[in-house]
Amino acid sequence: MPTTTAPDRAPAAGGTRRRRALAIGALALGAFGIGLTEFVVVGLLGPLGDDLRVSVSTAGLLVTGYAASVAIGAPIMTAVGANLPRKTMLVLLMALFVAGNVLAAFATTYGVLMAGRIVSALCHGTFMGIGPIMAASLVAPEKRSRAIALMMTGLTLATVVGVPFGTAVGQRFGWRSTFWAIVVIGALALAAILLFVPARPNDAGEGLRGELAVFRRPQVWLVLTITMLGWGAAYAAITFLEPILTEVAGFATSAVPWLMLLFGVGLTAGNLLGGRLADRAVMPALYGTITAATAALIVFAFAAHSPVPAAVMVFVIGAAGFAMVPVLQTRVLDAAEGAPSLASSVNASAFNVGIALSAWFGGLAIDADLGLTAPIWIGVAMGVAALAVAAAASAAAHRRSAADRFAGTAPG
């Protein structure tokens, strides 16, 4: 099913495979910087908390605050730029991202650091909403989920390469040096987008009125809810992965970058697999990936007490969790066919609402002395809820399809 407006469905006229690859690569580099900003704090909660004299649970609020800012900022920023060409929006968003990380790099207090993360988070949802639409527009419709997955590989490589490197740099030279590295990456991504992402006539969205109209469709709201719950389930463990691995599994702090590398390899494999599965059949892929992620969390809750099983499950959680990403992104583009920009950006918000909720509830559980594995069980509950909403969405779609068939065959 096509998911974008007519000018977006066909690859750019006269475009070559190399030019398309460079364009998707530029988008992926932007996603890399964004992913690094979001994820690297997870590996630095201890050093950062010690330097700023805050507890681990308070330091964890840097994850919650970032996610909440994405959730709030994505629809607002997309609405503000609804009539701008998509490339122009991407350039402006990446410039804002760089500014936010400069502020974070200069931070000497917890409040200033949180402010820098909020500023950089404002670009996150809209970039990750418009970026997949741009990536899908560069390839044939039947390859759109794989193009989305390739762009999202920037996020996974941020974990495979960026987070271990950023964690190691932060532990060796101080956490501020990690944010300065992100500033450089953001500047390179900005230049690459300017050079390689094609600017085409009529490349703006459908306007605010058209973008808002898709929210009258129940399936849009249902898939946003699935995204929030499904990704929240995965992130319940991810947010507190560093303290779980060091305090529950018994790993040394020096092992954390290598474990994050293993986690990132799982993310990359799962993301690419999810793209292929979504191109074959979206709904079966949706059920399968959420079920796999929920099952992985259950196993991890028990395996986290032993180093070797915990390390294995770090890979599995990464693979199962990120396999959901291109599936969920493709599903929301289907549900919002015709005017996908705002819905896609709000889907990025839904990802981060899930992150914020799971991090918040996880922090409350830890503060209530329920143990560091308590957030994992919160994730399991969210995964089960996501499957229930997916079943309700399928039932509603079948009822709508049956009603349409009946209306089509009824005598006029």
From TrEMBL:
<feature type="transmembrane region" description="Helical">
    <location>
        <begin position="90"/>
        <end position="112"/>
    </location>
</feature>
<dbReference type="Pfam" id="PF07690">
    <property type="entry name" value="MFS_1"/>
</dbReference>
<feature type="transmembrane region" description="Helical">
    <location>
        <begin position="118"/>
        <end position="140"/>
    </location>
</feature>
<feature type="domain" description="Major facilitator superfamily (MFS) profile">
    <location>
        <begin position="23"/>
        <end position="398"/>
    </location>
</feature>
<feature type="transmembrane region" description="Helical">
    <location>
        <begin position="220"/>
        <end position="238"/>
    </location>
</feature>
<keyword id="KW-0812">Transmembrane</keyword>
<dbReference type="InterPro" id="IPR050189">
    <property type="entry name" value="MFS_Efflux_Transporters"/>
</dbReference>
<keyword id="KW-1133">Transmembrane helix</keyword>
<feature type="transmembrane region" description="Helical">
    <location>
        <begin position="179"/>
        <end position="199"/>
    </location>
</feature>
<keyword id="KW-1003">Cell membrane</keyword>
<feature type="transmembrane region" description="Helical">
    <location>
        <begin position="250"/>
        <end position="273"/>
    </location>
</feature>
<keyword id="KW-0472">Membrane</keyword>
<dbReference type="GO" id="GO:0005886">
    <property type="term" value="C:plasma membrane"/>
</dbReference>
<dbReference type="InterPro" id="IPR036259">
    <property type="entry name" value="MFS_trans_sf"/>
</dbReference>
<feature type="transmembrane region" description="Helical">
    <location>
        <begin position="58"/>
        <end position="78"/>
    </location>
</feature>
<feature type="transmembrane region" description="Helical">
    <location>
        <begin position="310"/>
        <end position="328"/>
    </location>
</feature>
<dbReference type="GO" id="GO:0022857">
    <property type="term" value="F:transmembrane transporter activity"/>
</dbReference>
<dbReference type="InterPro" id="IPR020846">
    <property type="entry name" value="MFS_dom"/>
</dbReference>
<feature type="transmembrane region" description="Helical">
    <location>
        <begin position="340"/>
        <end position="362"/>
    </location>
</feature>
<protein>
    <submittedName>
        <fullName>MFS transporter</fullName>
    </submittedName>
</protein>
<dbReference type="InterPro" id="IPR011701">
    <property type="entry name" value="MFS"/>
</dbReference>
<feature type="transmembrane region" description="Helical">
    <location>
        <begin position="285"/>
        <end position="304"/>
    </location>
</feature>
<feature type="transmembrane region" description="Helical">
    <location>
        <begin position="374"/>
        <end position="397"/>
    </location>
</feature>
<feature type="transmembrane region" description="Helical">
    <location>
        <begin position="21"/>
        <end position="46"/>
    </location>
</feature>
<feature type="transmembrane region" description="Helical">
    <location>
        <begin position="147"/>
        <end position="167"/>
    </location>
</feature>
